[in-house]
Amino acid sequence: MFKTEYIYELTDGNLSKKGYGSLLGCIAYFVRKYNWSKNIIASETVNSNYWSADDIKELAHLFFEWAITKRKFDYLNKIPESYLSYYFLQILISFVANRISEEQQKAGLSFEKCKELVAKVSKEKYFYKEVKGIAYLFNNSFENKDIKSDSEINSSLKHLSHYRIPESTKHYKSLVLMALEDIFNIVESPVALPKLFKTVFELFDQSSFTEIQNDAVYFEERQETDSPKYKSIIRNILVGISKEDAQIVSEYLFQSNGEASLSVLAEKYGLAKSTLHYKTESFKKKITENYIPDNEEDGINFLQNLSAALDELAK
Predict the structure, then answer these.
(1) pLDDT at 166 over 70
(2) Are residues 83 and 130 located together in one domain of the fold?
(3) The domain boundary residue, chosen from 221, 247, 275
(4) What is the pLDDT of residue 256?
(5) CA-based torsion, 78, 260, 315, 91: positive or negative
(6) What confidence tier does 58 reach under pLDDT thresholds 50, 70, 90?
(7) What is the C-alpha end-to-end distance of the chain, expressed in Å?
(8) Gyration radius of the chain's alpha carbons
(9) pTM of the model as a whole
């Protein structure tokens, strides 16, 4: 895990050579653990699974730049030190998920792109005819009487197999052509062009483009664990906490947009800044005195439950 001393060095703008090496090592560990594709630092990579030392450095620099620009590090001083490493990891996970999301928009076959390819292939290969203002296509010349009902066409389409598109796929025209051939062969009828657009697109299984994203956001989609051990510990932590104190602590420690500074809260609650500092630091101390997590997942689950309990108390 990330060492807190080096996290503080980074956020203070005084990262040492040793701290830099330690952070790079941790980032490299999570790259390997979750098998992140190198596409998150450079599109169209030849070997998306091999990460060199320079690649890790580039990923780290992109991460640091993103986190600083987005002010993700500004409020790490609010986090109890025992959990700081886990929170830092969550910032990294968010960055990677964001990068993969950007790449997802470039990958795969969109519906609009599919429509363009179907229209292009249709002009090159198939017979076209308008019937009552609707364009129909078929692989042979046809008359109006050759067009089957929607129910007959839909019944036949149910038997079509899907095509799994590998992540490495770059050209889709041949796949579109194959799908059209299968549709006409099984339906044995002219098909309306709008229905062809929809049917061809739905035949393509593009799950390979989302598998890596699902791995990358493993932490972001974990389910909360409302275990009895959390309940008893949280009950101890909340002893003597008033409704107003719960509101203050919840806003200061767990507000997701990270804008609840002591100055803002002091003005909001009409309290001295020193008083608020004492309240928040005392609460963080109670957390560390009452609970030490077994691992990063346990720590995050505990904080999720603590945040929910504070919100309930603050009502």
Answers:
(1) no
(2) no
(3) 221
(4) 46
(5) negative
(6) very high
(7) 36
(8) 28
(9) 0.46
Residues 83 and 212 in one domain: yes
Which pLDDT belongs to residue 218?
41
Q: What single DSSP character describes residue 78? A: G
Helix (H, G, I), strand (E, B) or coil at 204: strand
pLDDT per position as a tens digit, 180-237:
999 999 999 999 999 999 898 888 766 555 444 444 444 343 434 456 778 889 989 9
Q: Are residues 102 and 146 in the same domain?
A: no
Q: Say yes or no: 247 and 310 in one domain.
A: yes
Residues 131 and 276 placed together within one structural domain of the fold: no
- 201 & 260 share domain: no
How many domains is the chain built from? Answer: 3
The residue segments making up the domain with residue 158 are 111-205
Instruction: State the Cα–Cα distance between residues 204 and 194, nearest whole angstrom.
Output: 17
CB 210 within 8 A of CB 221: no
pLDDT for position 214: 46
247, 314 contact by CB (below 8 A): yes
Place of tokens 């129909």: 136
Residue indicated by tokens 């998150």 = 40
Cβ–Cβ < 8 Å for 279, 249: yes
